[in-house]
């Protein structure tokens, strides 16, 4: 069991999605992806750093052969709102051309990062490109393409845990927490 309340960088956070709910949903996503990609060997692309925990759990729920690779972007500084700029800090090492690519994100907020990633990968001519995100801020996202697999839709709130950080802290929490404005 995870703590109900945690303090990270002096701010109070309360549980939004308990560990068991995440586990159950990640298993479902892994099973769904295994079914959808039967007969293929997809490459899962983890987006560093936020997706590492979800990524590691998700691929272990995938029952078909797969490969992995990572890319790293920067857009957020240590703040709770995006700087609005996306920069590529680490490119892919794998050969994308002709392969089924599955990008694994922790959260889609404005959609700026995933738009950037999609453009980057499409330039490399994959056979297909799918996107899986654990969290999706449905009232904030501004994109004109669909996200193939969504773990949980959440409101317009700042969340941490299970890989997601607040000024680099909180990634090691087992549940997803939301900032608690009532102090
Ligand atoms: P977007 O480009 O606005 O969609 O933001 C995507 C990235 O911002 C995510 O991959 C996260 O790293 C970060 N991010 C967005 N919302 C949150 C949040 O609520 N908590 C922590 N990180 C977030
Ligand atoms: Mg991220």
TrEMBL record:
CDD domains associated with the record: PRTases_typeI
Enzyme class at the top of the EC tree: transferase
UniProt entry keywords in alphabetical sequence: Cytoplasm, Glycosyltransferase, Magnesium, Metal-binding, Nucleotide-binding, Purine salvage, Transferase
Reaction equations catalysed: IMP + diphosphate = hypoxanthine + 5-phospho-alpha-D-ribose 1-diphosphate; GMP + diphosphate = guanine + 5-phospho-alpha-D-ribose 1-diphosphate
Protein's name in the database: Hypoxanthine phosphoribosyltransferase
Family: Belongs to the purine/pyrimidine phosphoribosyltransferase family.
GO BP terms, alphabetized: GMP salvage; guanine salvage; hypoxanthine metabolic process; IMP salvage; purine ribonucleoside salvage
Coiled coil: none
Cleaved signal peptide residues: none
Gene3D superfamilies (UniProt xref): 3.40.50.2020
Subcellular locations according to the entry: Cytoplasm
EC annotation from Swiss-Prot or TrEMBL: 2.4.2.8
Single GO molecular function: hypoxanthine phosphoribosyltransferase activity
Presence of the UniProt keyword Metal-binding in the record: yes
Obligatory cofactor(s): Mg(2+)
Pathway listed: Purine metabolism; IMP biosynthesis via salvage pathway; IMP from hypoxanthine: step 1/1
Main location: cytoplasm
GO CC annotation terms, alphabetical: cytosol
Domain Phosphoribosyltransferase: 20-166
PANTHER family, alphabetized: HYPOXANTHINE PHOSPHORIBOSYLTRANSFERASE, HYPOXANTHINE-GUANINE PHOSPHORIBOSYLTRANSFERASE
Any single Pfam family the record assigns to this protein: Pribosyltran
């Amino acid at each position: 069991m995870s703590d109900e309340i945690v303090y990270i960088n002096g701010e109070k956070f309360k549980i939004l999605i308990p560990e068991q709910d995440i586990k159950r949903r990640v298993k479902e996503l892994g099973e769904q992806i295994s079914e959808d990609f039967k007969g293929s060997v997809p490459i899962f692309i983890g987006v560093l750093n936020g997706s590492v925990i979800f990524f590691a759990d998700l691929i272990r729920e995938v029952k078909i052969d797969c490969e992995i690779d990572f890319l790293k972007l920067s857009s957020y500084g240590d703040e709770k709102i995006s700087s609005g700029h996306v920069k590529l800090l680490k490119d892919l090492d794998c050969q994308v051309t002709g392969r089924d690519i599955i990008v694994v994100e922790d959260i889609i907020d404005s959609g700026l990062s995933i738009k950037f990633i999609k453009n980057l990968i499409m330039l490399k001519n994959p056979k297909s490109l799918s996107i899986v995100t654990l969290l999706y801020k449905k009232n904030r996202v501004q994109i004109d393409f669909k996200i193939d697999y969504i773990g949980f839709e959440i409101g317009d709130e700042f969340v941490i845990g299970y890989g997601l950080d607040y000024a680099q802290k909180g990634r090691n929490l087992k549940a997803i927490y939301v900032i608690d404005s009532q102090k």
